[in-house]
Amino acid sequence: MNSTQSCPECGTDWQDGVTCTDHFHQMLFWENEYPEYTYQVHHYLVLCYHLQHPSLYSREMLPGAVRLLGDFLRGVSTEAARSSSRDVLDSGKRDWKITGTPESHGEYEHPVRWTMTAADITADSVENYEHNVRLWAQTTYDTLQASGNAAS
Ligand SMILES: [Zn+2]
pLDDT digit string (tens) for 57-80? Predict the structure, then answer.
């Protein structure tokens, strides 16, 4: 019997029991250990991981997070965006206003099939991390637009 589970949110196969949370923690570990490869794309990591697991956000926060990713990709600086959207980016913050609960959490209006997920980043080397996370950010936003979940 095939017992491989897949993520109910982003659809990634959890090979050998390694879950998306494990991939996220691996990336945070890399960010601690190898800042030279990672510091420029931390905001993309936080946004992409949460956008592909939208129940982590509250219903109110999800559309703002989609917009913020689009802003970053269009070149809005993280400093400018942070001052207006600090809560969306602060992954350590656990505030009822930004964090989803089992009863009320973010979900997309239209179904989404991601072309790239957290597992694709950790499958490659840390030297390619910045490149891969930038690609992840672009494909995540493109997928949201193509599926009708992001206003263009
Ligand atoms: Zn997942």
Answer: 998 889 989 999 999 999 988 777
Q: Which residues pair with 53 in a beta bridge?
A: none
Please state the pTM of the whole predicted model: 0.87
Distance 11 CA to ligand 1 centre (A): 6
**Are the CB atoms for 38 and 84 separated by under 8 Å?**
no
How far is the centre of ligand 1, averaged over its atoms, from the C-alpha of 23 (Å)? 9
Q: Cβ neighbours of residue 132 under 8 Å, at least 6 residues apart?
A: 120, 121, 124
Place of tokens 């129940």: 55
- Expressed in angstroms and rounded, the spacing between residue 27 Cα and the centre of ligand 1 is 14
The backbone torsions φ and ψ at residue 95, rounded to the nearest 5 degrees and listed phi first, read -115, 140
Cα 78 to ligand 1 centre (Å): 25
Rounded distance from Cα 30 to ligand 1 centre (Å):
19
